[in-house]
Amino acid sequence: MFSEQKQAIANAFGKAALSYDASAEFQRRVGHALLDRLPYFDRPQHVIDVGCGTGYFSSQLRDKGHNVTCVDLSQAMLDVANQRCGESVDYLQADAENLPLPSNSIDIAFSSLALQWCSDLSVPLQEMRRVVRPGGIIAFTTLVDGSLKELSEAWASVDSYQHINEFLSEKLIKVALAQAGLSAEPVEFVPIVQYYASAKALMRDLKGIGANHVPQARRPGLSGRRAIDQVEQAYQQYRHDNNLLPATYQVCFGVIVNE
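Above: the chain's sequence. Below: its structure in token form.
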């Protein structure tokens, strides 16, 4: 059904379906910030939540009175979303790069922290533009180059392998928007810092949401305990006066009216 790479991503998130919510504080912060940026609507809208995960924001959108369709690569994630939302929303296992929906059939395409898993950002953006009616809204967040720089630098002091996903630069995100026929003017780039008691706690959260899958990794498998301990030690240089370790994310927010 999906490519080998997409199936690997679906499997990683599927394995994390039951642990996701306990590890997703940052994801909730970002999604709520995106919700707050949506315009006011005086009537229910048909919304697709692309990369809905466990359906947390699908339920938020539903509670605002909208008609919601949960869309995700992972059937396991959709199953958890179904437990949360029940029959009050619809469910669709699909790839953001190939939405099986008619053109101009949706009022709002909402997608928070899912599109960074697509190899070419312009493709899902173009798909959301296609399915959203003229005058509708395309609302998304994605991670930007420089995210998790502290963890990346800590790993770099331990070995030369890639442990952190690569993210697009601001410039390349704007290029992808242009390629999709969307304006970059309403797009914001915002640093958001999440704090942890330890580097291990951060890495547990990344594993807990399934985000430990690194498509660009040059070796398979998990790192040993000794390497993890070395990362922990290297991360201590970032410890704040509050005795916590920062994990800095660079986040792109886009709320764009489809023309």
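Residues 214 and 220 are 9 Å apart (CA to CA).
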